[in-house]
Write a structure and sequence with these properties.
2 domains; 231 residues; alpha/beta; Glutaredoxin; two-stranded antiparallel sheet; 15% strand; globular
């Protein structure tokens, strides 16, 4: 899901509203819902918040998802609940991705000029959350003034166009914005680096610019791999 697609979906669902020719903001009703759920979740102990989200969103399966990923941030969880309660046509994975986009309007939009078209630009913290919460991800870490980065971006644009696949979450992160986090969480120390994650863990990686055929092969391998949770 690209940023443009995500924003369009949020406008259609009355989560965002235009404020001028180029600006957007969360609707008043959505902000009120987030504030209400944030207060409720903040009153719970961190280890009880997953169960609270399941109750508030009427989605029992969510409990295991958030517990396994150790996601307890009340701001993130409150946005997720508010979104789920007004959209019954989204899968949990779609809702999680849109929750990150909503949060970007509060924390600041991450740098996106080097991201492939089908990839969602994210901050380091949101990257960690989404990798933990999604079964299969392709993560592209890039930097500016980097010819190999430009080559990989072009390859990804050729492979995916501007339409993300339904079975993979495509994420792009600007490495210089969060080098310590990338090193600590994913053992990434330079760009370009491409990660292929399965059940929240790095399954394989490319450091530098692989061939287009190499990318295609690794993507298909990721699709075919059985997640550890299903074994």
């Amino acid at each position: 899901m690209s940023s443009t697609d995500a924003v369009e979906q949020l406008i259609e669902r009355d989560v965002f509203e235009p404020v001028d020719a180029d600006g957007l903001r969360p609707t008043e009703s959505f902000r009120e819902a987030v504030d209400r759920h944030r207060r409720t979740l903040a009153e719970r102990d961190p280890d009880e918040r997953s169960a609270a989200v399941a109750e508030l969103a009427d989605d029992p399966e969510t409990t295991d998802t958030f517990e396994a990923a150790a996601v307890t941030d009340p701001d993130f969880l409150a946005r997720y609940v508010a979104l789920r309660n007004r959209t019954d046509d989204l899968s949990p994975a779609q809702a999680l991705t849109l929750t990150v986009v909503i949060g970007q309007f509060e924390s600041g939009t991450p740098r996106a000029d080097g991201a492939p078209e089908a990839f969602l630009p994210v901050s380091g913290e949101d990257l960690v959350r989404l990798v933990k919460l999604h079964e299969r991800c392709v993560v592209y870490a890039w930097r500016e003034d980097c010819p190999p980065c430009d080559a990989i971006r072009s390859d990804f644009d050729e492979l995916f166009g501007d339409e993300p696949p339904g079975d993979l979450l495509l994420l792009a992160v600007y490495g210089p914005d969060c080098p310590r986090l990338l090193d600590r969480e994913f053992d990434v120390s330079g760009a370009p680096t491409t990660l292929f994650t399965l059940d929240g863990r790095v399954d394989s990686r490319f450091v530098g610019a692989p061939s287009t055929e190499g990318l295609e092969t690794e993507i298909e391998t990721l699709r075919e791999r059985t997640p550890p949770s299903a074994e």
